[in-house]
Amino acid sequence: MAEYVNIFSLAIQQQLRIEDIEFTDFYFEHGYKDPRGFNWILARLVRENER
Question: What is the pLDDT along the chain (51 residues), one digit of tens a residue?
């Protein structure tokens, strides 16, 4: 979990939007073709809460 906190701390520091990190692949897994990682899930939850 700490690695994800670090990702979002960096995003806040750099003033990134959720869209900027939504499809980033910090932990690439060869052969894994589903882009719905933790960042994507969090972005979806943020959008749902904004409505």
Answer: 677 788 778 888 989 887 787 767 666 565 666 666 777 777 888 888 887
Provide the domain count of the chain. 1
Half-sphere exposure of 5 (CA within 13 A, CB side): 2
Q: What is the pTM of this model?
A: 0.47
CA 31 to each of CA 13, 28, 34, 48, 49: distance values in angstroms, whole numbers, following the listed order: 32, 9, 9, 30, 32
Count of C-beta atoms within a 10 Å radius of residue 11: 16
Q: In the structure encoding, which two tokens stand for residue 17, read together? A: 């939007």
Closest CA to 40 of 20, 23, 16: 23
Residue 34's domain comprises 2-50
